Amino acid sequence: MDKIKTVDEFRFINSLHTTVRVLKICSEIIKQIGSRNIPIILLKKIMIEWSRKKQKVSAIYNKRHGKLTNSDGTPTTALPHYIYFLKRLGLIISYRDVLSNSRLGNILYLFIHNKKNDDIGLSKIEKIFYLYILLQEDADGIIFTLDLLQHNNHKNQGTILELFKHNFKNRLLNKQKYSNSQSQSKINEKFRIIEYQWKNATKYAEHILVPRLEWLQDFGLVEINKDSSSTFYKLTVVGKKFYKQLPEVLNTKIKDINSKWLKFKVMRTISLIINNKKKLTLWDESSKRERHSHLSILLNEAFNNINTDNAFRLSQFESFIFLVINLLDKYDIIMELSNFENELLTGFEDNKKIFTLITAARKNEGYISIRIK
Q1: What crossing angle do the helices spanning 40-57 and 79-89 adopt, rounded to 10°?
Q2: Are residues 333 and 224 in the same domain?
Q3: Exposed site from 89, 298, 341, 357, fewest CB < 10 Å?
Q4: Domain membership of residue 343 as a residue range
């Protein structure tokens, strides 16, 4: 098991609402926005109509909490909370009352816009995409939820919610001891809010835990069973493997990740959620000829498809997402950010183009320079 020496960040999505439970709704919002700027009021009409139709054809969607419409077709209050969530993930941006997909949102749109899928479940590509982004932005929320089930497996919702405050405070206190100054400040603020501002911890727990449990079900990591009066949660076999793969903070039992793990190990851990009978190959284990061929195809696809402000520059982060998902989906190859950087830092030449990575401290400021010979 990997060990991390220093906690470098508190990754947690605040102000999450309990209705944000169906990631497929997020994908549909991205699809409906597409490449245009769309007024929120128009998007609302489109999504409500989509939800009404979905209720008629999908028994699974009908049973899910977090729908955009009630059983009689009237709108629920969920849509604004999905929009906030997508903004927080960095997938959409807003100006006044108009929405558009961000550069990252456009990557997801590229993958899903022409795919017809009547199922409310996530495709393989969507699973990889969302889990990667959620580990970047919400690792503490995701890992805490898994940790709670690891030690309290097959408990009902009421028990899980009651366990929340004590266990979350313990996580924060233990993380704080091994954190750098930046993450310590965020952890202290969160602890102060829980300790002194929350009057009803169980009510807050419903907003924090229940959506994440539903996402984890979509990834195949958690199983949710319902009877007439209760909802029960437990880790799946894959969920247990995934949890075991997560690193621990050195000299503790705290499961956590840091930027180094996100650079070197995240994709091989995410690959566990793929129900694939084929053997997956690590990037370094593939031949030099294969690596060159795959990079050649995918970098040129990125050059032709990813929107950019500069015709000869591609965003590093979005390009990486585009490549790693394609490699897993099409070629059963696992590429980490470290592999991506190693291949492009010195320049990759193909078909009279030279792709060179220019790194930056912030992930959204690095880019790939493209020079025509």
Answers
A1: 110
A2: no
A3: 341
A4: 281-372
Q: How far apart are CA 179 and CA 183, in angstroms?
A: 6
The CA distance from 144 to 38, in Å, is 36
Tell me which amino acid residue 176 is. Answer: Q
Residue 118 banded pLDDT, cuts 50, 70, 90: low
* pLDDT tens readout for residues 261-297: 999 999 999 999 987 777 899 999 999 999 999 999 9
Packing angle, helices 124-151 and 23-33, rounded to 10: 150
Residue 120, amino acid: I
Most confident of 63-67, 90-94, 350-354: 90-94
Q: Name the DSSP class of 246.
A: S
Which residue is it, tokens 């621990």? 248
Centre a 10 Å sphere on the Cβ of residue 136 and count the other Cβ atoms it contains. Answer: 18
Positive or negative: CA dihedral 121, 126, 132, 136: negative
241 and 130 together in one domain:
yes
Pair 105, 181 in one domain:
no
Is 74 part of a structural domain of the chain?
Answer: yes
243 CA to centre of own chain: 16
Is pLDDT above 80 for 116?
no
Residues in the chain: 373
Tokens encoding 261: 């793990």
End-to-end Cα spacing for the chain: 46
Count Cβ atoms within 10 A of the Cβ of residue 71 and give its class: 0-12 exposed, 13-18 middle, 19 or more buried: exposed
| Domain assignment present for 18 | no
Using alpha carbons only, give the angle 95, 126, 231 rounded to the nearest 5 degrees: 100
Q: What's the whole-number mean pLDDT along residues 97-116?
A: 92
Q: How far apart are CA 284 and CA 88, in angstroms?
A: 34
Closest by CA position to 6, among listed 217, 199, 258: 258
Token readout for 24 is 């497929």
Our count of domains for the chain comes to 3
pLDDT exceeds 90 at position 53: yes
- What is d(CA 241, CA 258) in angstroms, rounded to the nearest whole number? 19
